[in-house]
Write a structure and sequence with these properties.
Layout (H helix, E strand, L loop, with lengths): L13 E8 L9 E2 L4 E2 L5 H13 L4 E5 L8 H5 L11 H8 L4 E3 L9 H8 L6 E2 L3 E3 L12 E9 L6 E11 L4 H4 L1 H4 L3 E3 L2 H14 L4 E6 L16 H5 L6 E3 L6 E2 L10 E2 L4 E2 L2 E6 L5 E12 L2 E13 L7 H18 L2 E5 L3 E2 L9 H18 L9 E5 L15 E2 L2 E4 H7 L5 E8 H11 L11 E4 L12 E3 L2 E4 L23 E6 L2 E2 L5 E7 H4 L13 E8 H11 L11 E3 L5 E7 L7 H6 L3 E5 L5 E6 L4 H4 L2
Parallel strand pairs: 1-4, 4-5, 5-6, 9-11, 11-12, 12-16, 21-30, 25-33, 27-32
Antiparallel strand pairs: 1-17, 2-3, 7-10, 8-9, 13-16, 14-15, 15-16, 17-18, 19-23, 20-22, 21-26, 24-30, 24-31, 27-28, 28-29, 33-35, 34-35
Helix pairs in contact: 3-9, 10-14, 11-14
């Protein structure tokens, strides 16, 4: 697939093209398994054609992946144990066929556990990197992951026509927050270290090993917070580490460079640089191919970067690559059969278009499934008499995934496709104890997703777009109201905004009609991601963990839908907003909401057109809460 064209657009002695993918999330075919519809602008089979075309434009290139490639679709869940069964994962088979030079691990690679991950990557000969993770003394297996790799190429000097060797050193990094997000699998077995410190340590070692260029594969986003120890999104801090020639970022599913965006604070979309370092972030699901062109000159017998160009190239006009389609066909057909398996019925449509502004049926079904599983698990224990709540968030709410990324299930037969749409993550199920005071704090963190609403009425933004939908928990089993005229208490990262002010948004918090007291004790069914501190929530003290199972939460949902049925869940929203006379909350959702006019009418919503990126604008009257208006 590697072509020989030399139409670089640069004047220099030689040049090399760095091609990169990131956050593919096991989207091999251009098909949404959960919605059973084709995709025109993503999928690794489309990216493969873009890779082939980009290689043909360059006499010398390397191909890298920046993590989060093994999780994200029903196919990924089906093949999570492929390594232990002696099989090659379809994603790794496709990457092998595409001749990837190096793969970096992302945080989601750890979702299935350390042993599963090791087994999967043992079936590929592509170097798999992770520099800022090390084993603990307790961990018996010494071989974790290689921190760095050297890629070798030969470059022809455009003037002398002589051939010179080029060595590219690659470092792989990921967020230390894996210790929170997958703590159930990782605590006591591995340790994660600061990305900036790790890069600073390995760059001189790679230079000593002969690296002419240093490329950092950093599964991290671009955040303007500056240099913060163990930051989740540390790309700007990494760009200030001396010695980096190119930086590949990811994790946040965004695009860099994004033409037309003005430069600010070290970020230059026009030049494609962070603090002068050529950088790329290639979107999500294989939607874009990252390209960094480095034009090199030889000075004092070494290569130096003279010019550069960065691009996040859309794959929307690329056909699906026939060769890669053939390689993944078995896994694709196996997945189609799996998602088509019947598991029950529903007499009502189930969707998540209103999951962030209304305690909707989709959220309640997932929550009740969690609660039933925990009640069964604890029934014969000393905690069996405690009231069981369920913490659950709406998992598909558009955002960076786009206006089609919502649950939308028609009444009728339910299949595995619908279950994976309702619960798309491979989280395991936990049960924890919580006092009334801890419950109130939990909810204050969740409702900090809302903007503060002025009392003088009018149209006002309702949601803080920095909060992802999966951070906005509802605690089923309680009833409560939300006072939007009060300021939010927490940032999207879980930091207190004003410690001098007591959080005051949660009102009328009750359990079975009685006010919740600070010293009341509850059991909360919750996924392991949240229990170990995922999102704006504190990690639960191990002394409060009653159940830390390895039961997949989606499996519990499937069992509930098969045995109890979706119609066993009464659609009774447990929370509402306190009225703000004359005010309307303005937000966006998927245009699919227009197919549910009964809910638009029941909530008094006012749709007002489609945005440039395909979302539906809606206005929610705040003079009465969703509980009342839903009847």
């Amino acid at each position: 697939m590697k072509g020989q064209s030399k139409n670089t657009g640069f004047v220099g002695h030689a040049w090399i093209r760095i091609l990169a993918t990131s956050d593919v999330h096991a989207h091999l075919r251009a098909l949404d398994y959960t919605r059973d519809c084709p995709a025109s602008d993503w999928g690794l089979t489309r990216t493969a054609s873009a890779i082939e075309a980009a290689r043909a434009e360059s006499p010398c290139s390397i191909l890298l992946d920046n993590g989060d490639f093994l999780q994200g679709t029903p196919l990924a869940d089906l093949f999570a144990t492929a390594g232990k069964n002696g099989q090659t994962h379809p994603v790794l088979a496709a990457m092998k066929a595409l001749d990837y030079d190096v793969i970096n691990l992302g945080n989601h690679e750890f979702n299935y556990g350390l042993d599963q991950l090791r087994a999967l990557i043992s079936k590929t000969d592509i170097p798999v990197l992770c520099a800022n993770v090390s084993r603990t003394k307790r961990e018996r297996q010494k071989d974790l992951f290689a921190p760095t790799a050297l890629i070798h190429r030969n470059l022809e000097d455009a003037v002398t026509k002589e051939i010179y060797p080029l060595s590219i050193g690659v470092i792989g990094l990921l967020p230390t927050q894996i210790m929170k997000w997958d703590g159930a699998h990782l605590l006591g077995r591995i340790e994660a270290h600061d990305m900036v410190e790790t890069a600073s340590y390995h760059i001189p070692k790679l230079r000593e090993a002969g690296a002419d260029l240093i490329v950092v594969l950093a599964h991290t986003g671009i955040d303007r917070k500056g240099i913060v120890p163990n930051a989740e999104n540390a790309a700007l801090a990494l760009a200030q580490v001396p010695g980096i020639d190119a930086l590949v970022t990811g994790h946040t599913h965004q695009l860099f460079p994004n033409p037309g965006t003005l430069p600010s604070g070290g970020i230059d979309h026009t030049a494609g640089t962070l603090y002068g370092v050529p950088t790329v972030m290639p979107g999500y699901r294989g939607s874009h191919l990252g390209i960094v062109d480095l034009c090199l000159e030889r000075r004092a017998n070494r290569w130096v970067v003279a010019h550069h160009r960065s691009e996040a190239r859309s794959v929307a006009n690329s056909p699906e690559h026939a060769g890669i389609m053939t390689i993944v066909e078995h896994g694709h057909q196996h997945t189609l059969a799996y998602v088509g398996k019947p598991i029950g019925q529903t007499n009502r449509p189930i969707h998540s278009y209103l999951g962030l502004i209304h305690c909707d049926l989709a959220t309640q079904i997932v929550g009740e499934a969690q609660r039933a599983a925990v009640q069964n698990a604890l029934a014969e224990t000393d905690h069996g008499d405690l009231p069981v709540l369920s913490a659950v968030a709406p998992y598909q709410t558009g955002g960076r995934a786009g206006p089609m990324a919502y649950v939308d299930i028609a009444e009728g037969a339910l299949t595995m496709r619908n279950a994976t749409s309702l619960y798309p993550f491979p989280n395991t199920l936990c049960a924890v104890t919580a006092t009334g005071a801890q419950i109130r704090d939990w909810l204050e963190r969740a409702v900090s997703c809302f903007e503060q609403i002025r009392r003088d009425g009018g149209d006002q933004p309702l949601l803080n777009k920095e909060f992802p939908g999966h951070s906005v928990d509802t605690l089923l089993g309680l009833t409560y109201r939300i006072d939007l005229t009060q300021p939010p208490a927490y940032t999207p990262d879980g930091d207190r905004l004003d410690p001098s002010l007591a959080p005051a948004r949660i009102c009328e918090l009750s359990y079975e009609g009685a006010p919740v007291r600070h010293d009341d004790t509850f059991v909360v069914a919750v996924n392991a991601y949240r229990a170990f501190g995922g999102g704006p929530y504190e990690a639960i003290n191990p002394s409060r963990v009653l159940l830390n199972s390895f039961t997949n939460a989606c499996d519990s949902l499937v069992a509930f839908l098969s045995e109890e049925g979706a119609d066993s869940v009464t659609d009774q929203p447990c929370w509402s907003f306190l009225p703000v006379p004359g005010a309307r909350g303005i937000t966006q959702t998927g245009p699919g909401l227009l197919s549910h006019p009964e809910e638009i009418g029941a909530l008094g919503l006012a749709p007002s057109g489609i945005t440039e990126d395909g979302f539906l604008n809606i206005a929610l009257p705040l003079d009465q809460g969703p509980c009342e208006s839903s009847g």
